[in-house]
Amino acid sequence: MLLIPCPWCGPRDEAEFRYGGQAHVAYPGDPGALTDEEWAHYLFFRDNPKGPFEERWNHTSGCRRWFNLTRDTATNEIWPTTSAGARPGTGTVATGGGSR
């Protein structure tokens, strides 16, 4: 089991969380204008690195807030968390375009 550090509740067992996928995937500006291929790419294609990877998590059994963390997919080592709208590596909230 992973010990996931919630920014609001502190370290908690992985069973209290739900995985939300890759962090910082921007929703299309005009989804109606996308071709089927572009829409499929947005929905289903994600990075799958071996090593550090930014992910979204929801603390479903706690504060119910979304946050981002960086987890090494090979070792499960976890680095500090940020709020869900934060830019990678900065801890500051992104403006315009937003993050999904």
CATH topology-level fold name: Folate-binding fold
Q: Main β-sheet, in a few words?
A: 4 strands, antiparallel
Outline type: globular
CATH class term = Alpha Beta
Oligomer: single chain
Uncertain runs are 90-100
Order of helices and strands: EEEHEEE
Rg is: 14 Å
In short:
By secondary structure, this protein is mainly beta. It has one helix spanning 36-44, and strands at 3-6, 10-13, 18-22, 52-58, 66-72, 78-83.
Give the topology, please.
Elements: E1 3-6, E2 10-13, E3 18-22, H1 36-44, E4 52-58, E5 66-72, E6 78-83
What does it look like?
- By secondary structure, the chain is mainly beta.
- The chain has a single domain (3-83), classed as Folate-binding fold (2-Layer Sandwich).
- Helices cover 9% and strands 33% of the residues.
- It has 1 helix and 6 strands, in the order E-E-E-H-E-E-E.
- It has one helix at 36-44; strands at 3-6, 10-13, 18-22, 52-58, 66-72, 78-83.
- A 4-stranded antiparallel β-sheet has the order 3-4-5-6, with no helix packed on it. The chain has a two-stranded antiparallel ribbon with strand order 1-2.
- The radius of gyration is 14 Å and the shape is globular.
- The relative contact order is 0.25.
- The model is unreliable at 90-100 (pLDDT under 50).
